[in-house]
From TrEMBL:
Alphabetized PANTHER family for the sequence: ARAC-FAMILY TRANSCRIPTIONAL REGULATOR (PTHR43130), HTH-TYPE TRANSCRIPTIONAL REGULATOR RV1931C (PTHR43130:SF3)
Residue stretches making up the HTH araC/xylS-type domain: 214-312
Record-linked PROSITE patterns: HTH_ARAC_FAMILY_2 (PS01124)
InterPro entries given in the database record: Class_I_gatase-like, DJ-1/PfpI, Homeodomain-like_sf, HTH_AraC, INH-QAR
Keyword presence, Lipid metabolism: no
Descriptive protein name: AraC family transcriptional regulator
GO MF annotation: an example: DNA-binding transcription factor activity
Species annotation: Streptomyces monashensis
CDD domains reported for this sequence: GATase1_AraC_1
Gene3D superfamilies found in the cross-reference section: 3.40.50.880, Homeodomain-like
Sorted UniProt keywords: Transcription, Transcription regulation
Amino acid sequence: MPQRTLLFVLFDGVQSLDVTGPMEVFAGAEKHTPGSYRIRTASLDGGPVRTSSGLTLVPDGALTAASDPHTLVVPGGAGTRAPDPRLIDWLRAHGPRARRLVSVCTGAILLAAAGLLDGRRATTHWAYCDKLARDHPAVTVEPDPIYVRDAEVATSAGVTSGIDLALALVEEDLDRDVALDIARHLVVFLRRPGNQAQFSAQLAAQTAQRAPLREVQQWITEHPAGDLTVESLAARARLSPRHFARAFREETGMTPGRYVDRVRLEHARRLLEDTADGIEEIARAGGYGTPEAMRRAFLRALGTSPAEYRRRFHPAPAR
């Protein structure tokens, strides 16, 4: 098995967890399977860098002296807002030489500035997706997924999603059992699927200001299989259906139907990932009624069926 060299790019204002999160995953893989990875860090001049949290990181050397890696990892952080032009020049020259390009959080902004995301799909932290799309129109920005793979380029969303992406890469490089052992050691999911939304339904929607609407939001979350028609929810909020639908959208940013759809999909996904319940049972528990209705909802939102979703992303049982 060939050893893969990973080079983490360091710079002042880097987010420390963007570096250490994925690094812990790859270091765990190296301990599990010696010879699988060689991990290096480098800054522009080889000097220490100060992270956005105040932690000082001492790199292994300078980027100018680094050999071309198998995987180049570019983290994000406050330092991406006004990056050193020399860093962008280095990425532009050396990025294409890596067999695999990876960014964590706003590291995608650095890759885009170097022209390495042109014509590709990418994501970044939700707060910077609009900026990435506006500043780099040649990049197809996908704001929802926690990470996006486009051939040899992989970009991830905010902070902890770098761990999810690193686990996915370890599973690809080695195997699922190695990734599972690392996930257990780090006490994280084996990996959240890349197309999982950056926000849960509750976080994606605004919290309603009025108590009756907040209570309805909570009730929907706790009873995805209940009667969630507008008429029923309006009665629970003691409002007319028309007034309820208008107020709900004004205060949460989405229609009641859209909110119900997201809650039900999220609930079904959790059951598929975390339980051995049958598809028919999950369809009932999620409020879909029939497996076919759930299948249509999954195909519409995720482009895959519930059975395929489980096959690809359900963690293997502990041995």
